[in-house]
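Q: what sequence does this backbone want?
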């Protein structure tokens, strides 16, 4: 039998799944430790349930996921608002170098994915499902680009991307402890100026009366974004539906910052973006078709193993050496492991574990959230779009 759910029922199930994930996350220590998002926890359980129903022939679920796209665009528009060039400039040389390293990592992840897929004699587009889409991008970018790859004929791309993102959350462990102890780096732990960090926190303060204005700013950026997306489509290249809104939001943020003519309510926008991401992930997870992974199980394991090795080598030898070969560089390396195979909360959890054991690193706590949250998703989307169109 087929169980059909309309868009209202679909989002209601997504919220129930989110609540289930929150319940389990706060009661199972390992889920809290690895910062697994609540929609992913509940969504995987529901996806396994629907998979069992499908394989046994008991029932097949059909969802109207039109609201998934709306929530996705809301979330990525909020990401666009975080692309603050003034912060990038104020962060100094270290912030610029760290940003360049993240861009290099994004490109390396995609080149590795394409190269391994050709060695395994599968489509390079299948390989991209394990590249920077789920690694740097996490579940949000995985859910956004999965349908794009499916339009290019990659069957089950959404499921592949989401499975890879879940693997990344679990495997994105710290390397900082080994670096600190092996190279005796505690003597290099010098307190840093945290004025920029404090300034950013003040900018993100929430005010209840400002939430309507924040929603309006998001909607305006989304509306302008549709025009930008149409102009971009005239180039003949394929772009994700949210790319125009991200670009419009970035322009609005920086015009507001430099002109001083209007205020962008970043704290409220971040909250709305977080809610949108939870709903988007909830719908994306409950619509997974896990049985589509069966034919690609072995190539998927090989591709993900390659990404794990790349991440270790890149953080241990490249990030650590270029960022100064000191205590801060070791903590930064641990943070890159977190958001390079998961998300910024993973990075913060990795760094927190190290800093609680040794001493705090203000430099790492400044650079990783700024780059991981403000610029990584934005730049990752542009690089992924280039790779998809090139292939």
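A:
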């Amino acid at each position: 039998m087929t169980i059909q759910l309309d868009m209202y029922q679909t989002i209601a199930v997504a919220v129930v799944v989110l609540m289930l994930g929150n319940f389990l996350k706060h009661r199972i220590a390992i889920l809290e430790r690895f910062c697994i998002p609540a929609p992913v926890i509940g969504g995987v359980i529901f996806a396994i349930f629907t998979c069992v129903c499908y394989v046994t022939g008991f029932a097949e679920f059909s969802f109207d996921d039109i609201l998934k796209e709306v929530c996705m665009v809301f979330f990525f528009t909020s990401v666009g608002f975080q692309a603050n060039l003034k912060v990038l400039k104020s962060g100094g040389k270290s912030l610029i170098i760290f940003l360049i390293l993240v861009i290099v990592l994004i490109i390396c992840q995609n080149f590795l994915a394409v190269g391994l897929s050709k060695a395994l004699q599968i489509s390079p587009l299948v390989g991209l499902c394990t590249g920077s889409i789920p690694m740097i991008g996490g579940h949000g970018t995985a859910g956004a680009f999965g349908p794009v790859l499916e339009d290019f004929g990659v069957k089950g791309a959404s499921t592949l991307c989401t499975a890879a993102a879940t693997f990344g959350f679990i495997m994105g462990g710290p390397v900082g402890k080994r670096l600190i102890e092996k190279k005796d780096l505690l003597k290099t732990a010098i307190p840093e100026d945290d004025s920029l960090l404090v300034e950013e926190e003040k900018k993100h303060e929430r005010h209840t009366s400002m939430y309507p204005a924040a929603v309006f700013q998001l909607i305006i950026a989304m509306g302008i974004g549709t025009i930008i997306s149409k102009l971009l489509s005239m180039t003949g290249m394929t772009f994700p539906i949210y790319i125009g809104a991200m670009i419009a939001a970035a322009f609005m943020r920086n015009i507001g910052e430099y002109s001083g003519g209007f205020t962008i309510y970043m704290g409220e926008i971040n909250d709305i973006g977080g809610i949108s991401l939870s709903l988007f992930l909830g719908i994306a997870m409950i619509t997974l078709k896990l049985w589509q992974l069966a034919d690609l199980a072995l190539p998927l394991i090989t591709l993900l193993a390659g990404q794990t090795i790349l991440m270790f080598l890149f953080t241990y030898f490249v990030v650590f050496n270029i960022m100064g070969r000191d205590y801060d560089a070791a903590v930064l390396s641990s943070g890159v492991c977190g958001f390079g195979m998961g998300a910024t909360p993973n990075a913060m959890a990795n760094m927190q574990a190290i800093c609680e054991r040794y001493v705090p690193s203000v430099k790492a706590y400044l650079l990783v959230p700024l780059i991981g949250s403000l610029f990584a998703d934005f730049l990752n989307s542009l690089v992924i779009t280039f790779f998809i169109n090139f292939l």
